[in-house]
């Protein structure tokens, strides 16, 4: 009998790593009952187990419907339209649907498209940091980490600058259901108004791009074709929602967590500032050490899966692959609690593995490199403005990120 582990709440979110270390040691396949009192959820915490199961898309599926018998599927009620729109994207689908959507989106989301964003990301980062020169302090989340990726993803999609605030509001609304979907669905009226506003706006954008394509991702998505197949309109809506959430919320947390790690490890920050060739490896270490995705999105057992110690994950059970635990497993990473920007090799799982490997990883890496380097060049003597104990972490289970990150700088900002 294993002891219970508190995996929720502010105290846990402030530092989940000791709890995850205990789980790796005592209960690497940890089973508990969901809030419905019926469903088993398994929390997997060792690196080798998590990496193996991330790649096992046949026994672990994203769509719970694929764990049901034909009779159970027929009896299952249709999901609410809001839930369908929010969740019917490739991150929540299995082959062959996932394969089809991934192939289509790959046509639009190429390395060339990402590389073309570098100059614009640099300009956005400079403009945001220039705005803070006279202040001497700022909330790094609110004034830099949050606006930078929403501007980038809005420009990538082709959203006019005047509408960025609306996209920020939509991003906040979309991420809330992923944190607690059932509670959010009780607020269906308000959520429905948000989605109606979003779909009406996006339908107008889709119509405009069909008539006059531009050099933006929405135009490319509309034009994407694979063996005569194209994205249906509801798939376009779901894909844009996925890009807003995955391309914005996770980058906010990545930048906030990464800067905090540097501020708490001044020798590593000094090493980076003295030799920028460490920057790509530093980005990978930030993803490993305190990445924005604490737990992979939920998977479900399509069949009985024998695991360690004579346990069996039963068909239909939910499975949470804990990336934050796996990426600090001492069996894989020497001195895993050490933040080391020169760490090599660094086969972290921050961007996943297998068929669901993060499509936006190249863009996230590019944004991270530009944002971190620009920040530390503008403010070379950056430091925390409050004790670290006062920082508050968001309580969204699968994400790890700060509400605020107050910082100050001690000298006149460096000129570019």
Helix-strand blueprint:
Elements: H1 10-14, H2 17-26, E1 29-33, E2 40-44, H3 47-54, E3 60-61, H4 70-75, H5 81-87, H6 97-108, H7 111-115, H8 118-130, E4 137-139, H9 140-145, H10 147-157, H11 164-179, H12 181-185, H13 188-211, H14 217-223, H15 233-264, H16 266-274, H17 279-290, E5 299-301, E6 305-306, E7 312-313, E8 318-321, H18 323-326, H19 361-378, E9 382-384, E10 406-409
Parallel strand pairs: 2-8
Antiparallel strand pairs: 1-2, 3-5, 4-10, 5-8, 6-7, 9-10
Helix pairs in contact: 6-14, 8-10, 8-19, 10-15, 11-15, 15-17, 15-19, 17-19
What do you see in this structure?
This protein has 416 residues and is of the alpha+beta class. It has one domain: Cytochrome P450 (Cytochrome p450, Orthogonal Bundle). Helix content is 50%, strand content 8%. It is built from 19 helices and 10 strands. The strands form 3 sheets. A 5-stranded mixed β-sheet has the order 1-2-8-5-3. A 3-stranded antiparallel β-sheet has the order 4-10-9. The radius of gyration is 22 Å and the shape is globular. 39% of the residues are buried.
